[in-house]
């Protein structure tokens, strides 16, 4: 008989519990071009997605699929190197499956990072933007369908989808380190197209500061699961009516690589001070 959703989550989590002795309370999802943080994790244990029962396997260039357990900033963490994007063809339950497994493993805090296009006129390529809120423009909500009370409420609030406490900690560290740390609202879209100039303009007008093709589904499920979230976007390109540059995947990866040291140092120091 086909396993149920809850059974699949339990099976994946049980597998990880059998592999990893000291489980963390903090998880990290790394976005496009932002995998370098992995190199700073000590006492690493890596588990390939393909070896975890029920886990989807990531396909896109620049995303390897592994879960890394280890220590960062003096804390036990599990990091996802490579995430599942809706545009790859995964459904919303697959995109957010790892977050359900985190919930089952009793993860309390989730750090998410992504590459995003900037609409805010003050932003420059290479900026790090602390996500203060999001606008969900994906065609589907990951919580659509039967609700399992065990996993969270039918109608979860999204009032503080991104932890105010963690944002305050990021700001404190940004100031200490003299970092240029922006704040903004992340607009999540399905992709895989980058935006038309009119779309970038539209997203700015409705209150967005940056746009990307990930994060929102995972953050919705994390909130449903009672996991506290901190998110950062690395601004890899700029979009708007007066901007003529054409964004490419290569450019996004290159810009993300450049901003990595700032993002890595912010997250590592936040972990240290948690
Ligand atoms: N649009 C959508 N997703 C993105 C962008 C963008 O401009 N840059 C990086 N990810």
Protein model, in words:
It is globular and about 55 Å long. It has a five-stranded mixed beta barrel, surrounded by four helices. The mean pLDDT is 92. The chain is of the alpha/beta class. Strand 3 and strand 4 form a beta hairpin. Helix 1 crosses helix 3 and helix 4 crosses helix 7. It has seven helices and nine strands; from the N terminus they run H-E-E-E-E-H-H-E-E-H-E-H-E-H-E-H. Helices cover 30% and strands 24% of the residues. The chain binds hypoxanthine (HPA). Hypoxanthine (HPA) binds next to strand 5, strand 8 and strand 9.
Entry summary:
This protein has 274 residues and is of the alpha/beta class.
Order of helices and strands: HEEEEHHEEHEHEHEH
Strand content: 15-25%
Biggest sheet character: 5 strands, mixed, barrel
* Cα-based radius of gyration, to the nearest Å: 18 Å
Small ligands present:
hypoxanthine
**Kindly state the mean pLDDT as a whole number?**
92
Q: How would you write the strand order of the largest sheet?
A: 5-8-7-6-9
- How helical, in percent, are the residues? 25-40%
* Strands, count: 9
| Termini gap | 44 Å
Poorly predicted runs of 5 or more residues: none
The gross shape turns out to be: globular
Name the structural class. Answer: alpha/beta
- What's the quaternary structure here? single chain
Q: Count of DSSP helices?
A: 7
